[in-house]
Amino acid sequence: MALAAAVTLLLGLPVAAAVRHTPFPVAESSGDLKAPATQRARQTQPNFHAPAATICSDTPVLREVADPSPKPQQHNIAAGESRLRRGDGTHAVAKMIAPPSPPAPPAPSPVAAVVEAAADASYAAAEMPMAPVSGSSAVRQQQVAVTAGVVDDNADFAAFQQFLQGHEEANNLGRDVSVRQRLQVVDAQGRPVPDAEVAVSARNGARMWARTDAGGQVWVHPNAFDDRDSDSYQVQVRRAGRTVTAALQRGQKNALQVIVADAPLPARAKLDLVFMVDATGSMADEIDKLRDSLQGIVRDIAKLPSNPDICLGLVTYRDRGDEYFVRGWDLSNNVAAFQKALDGVQANGGGDYPEAMNEAFDHAVQSMNWRGTSTTRLLVSLADAPPHMDYPQPRYEQTMLAALGKGIKVLSVAASGQDTTGEIAQRQIAQYTGGRFIFLTYKDASDPSSGPGSETVHEVENYSVDTLDTLVVRLVREELAQLPKG
């Protein structure tokens, strides 16, 4: 029987065994993850819709998430002001005289109020001041380079585990990823099979979903979806209508390789790239840099050997009581129109320290028009504050499961002022989705005004430093370079 199963896998045919069928999510799937946000919560239903868009919009369409408790905050952070971090355990705001007022009582559940408009209306809805402001072309000065470092917490997984174990609060954040196993999907010629749908299930009903990255790989974390330490799991891999079934043993050291014969090769690389930006007042410098360098990033990516078909999206967020809560511009292939939308984003608001990162991350993953099969999906998240964990759902530890299920790899960027809680959240999201943790660096780690340099307050070692835009382009290039060649 074992030999027959091995031959069947090699031929790319489903194994004819008496195993429970695990459905793959489709665009119409409506299952939600309702389990409590704990490290060992069990997942039994997909909490996402499969990415299904076939093309990108010619113009960025604005969608807005309504503030669930639009009560004006007493203290806002104006553009240019910065946060203090990691001092005595408090998170104050520079130039603040009094502490911020407590947040409004949580609403039962944030409800997304979707506002769709043509491109011109989207730009009008963005914050377009009557007079030029800092960052606009009329008064923009030469920008100082923003330097950043990067680490791969999957490459140095032991150091990542040591980081989490060194902070007690990590026990109540994210999911348990202490058990980790690698799944590799290849075709009959040994080439990686990107964007293959993966479903992993235990006999007790616990399940998880993923899509392979450009290199045909996905990390499986059994403890993140199974709270009963099952000994083995059924793995189903589907690509282009062909489904292959295999078995994964908990704790097996070698990667599980699944062969899907005759997997089609994409004619041209497709890249969906979304920027998610904290648009509170302390983020002014980073927003200006992103605005100034976006065209260069897109130009350099377009010149890559893979000649990718690029679509760009943007999500900005603040907090409850601010001028807006979460805004998203759907993926578009119109770079000029996207640049215009980005030019309308201004930094302001954000009275208390945490921000609406949970809600923005959920919108970026669940509501953006990500393209379907054979797409490389990347989300660049830029933030200088942690998410509000005192707000009701959605929470990032649920959304990162959905991101993996939709094949969205997250590049988390920690800006100046990010505290330990924020670093934990950003690194957990990046590690779980197979992404990278990026952090801004300075000449003096404790003083962001000291200018570009190689020092950081974050708990990382053995990192490389470059300009932020160069790093983003490099990581995109490395991802696309893994795609199989015809």
UniProtKB/TrEMBL annotation:
Domain VWFA: 272-475
Keywords recorded for this protein, A-Z: Secreted, Signal
Alphabetical list of SUPFAM superfamilies matching this protein: vWA-like
Highest taxon above the source species: Bacteria
CDD domains (alphabetical): vWFA
PROSITE patterns found in the cross-reference section: VWFA
SMART domains named among the record's database cross-references: VWA (SM00327)
Protein name: VWFA domain-containing protein
Naturally occurring in which organism (per UniProt): Stenotrophomonas terrae
Taxon lineage: Bacteria, Pseudomonadati, Pseudomonadota, Gammaproteobacteria, Lysobacterales
Keyword Transport: no
Pfam family, one: VWA_4
Subcellular location: Secreted
Major subcellular site: secreted
Stretch forming the signal peptide: 1-17
